[in-house]
Amino acid sequence: TTCCTYQLNLQITISGNNFISDLHGTCQLSALISPIDADNPKIIWSVNDSNIATITQNGLVRAKTNGIVTAIASSQDGSGILSSKNIIINNQDSKTNEVNESIRIQIFPNPANDYIILSHNTKINEIHYTLFDIYGTETIKGILSKSASKIDINGLQSGIYFFKIEEFAPINYKIIKN
Rg of the Cα trace of the chain? Predict the structure, then answer.
């Protein structure tokens, strides 16, 4: 007797936004199983870190705190077929905004071509930063040690990036690379 049979060549494609920047904001994801005539086209949604965001079984992601969360769409048929999408979440901590009102950070030029300059008014000797693309993939990571530092972005493709600063709780900025 056969215990279980799985349809071969199933594929799941997730669509929807890659970021949430509104306080307690949401984004709607959808998943498509192909082929369209799959035996069991039902999806089970989950996230890798429910402290950052939650997701309903309808694919609605709700932000809880700043970070990057991975939304996972799994086939309900038990085949193990799944797909995932990283979602960048920022501007979620109202305390962070209050604490950081006295911190002045400027990133320019924006949009930029070959480099960006980070200028700040803090007395901190080292500022840790990471640059993510819109898919949540880390593209550049480093430490700035001066009050104004130049970061080379010449090797990046044109597009939207998120600049995350670790000190003072995460601060995120949107950067456009020409």
Answer: 20
Question: Could you tell me the CA-to-CA distances from 50 to 55, 105, 169 in Å, in that order?
Answer: 8, 30, 19
Indicate the residue type of 70.
T
Candidate from 5-9, 101-105, 145-149 with smallest mean pLDDT: 5-9
Alpha-carbon span 32 to 95, nearest angstrom = 38
Q: Please give the Cα distance from 124 to 121 (Å, whole number).
A: 9
What Cα–Cα distance (Å) separates residue 8 from each residue in 34, 39, 73, 157, 159? Answer: 10, 10, 17, 36, 36
Residue 26: CB atoms within 10 Å: 15
Tell me how far apart the alpha carbons of residues 44 and 127 are, in angstroms, rounded to a whole number: 40
Token pair of 36 as six digits: 């369209």
pLDDT tens digits along 123-164:
677 778 888 888 888 999 988 876 568 899 999 999 988 888
Query: 121: closest CA among 149, 102, 95, 142?
Result: 102
The two three-digit tokens of residue 122, written as one number: 């803090």
Return the number of other C-beta atoms located less than 10 Å from residue 99's C-beta. 12
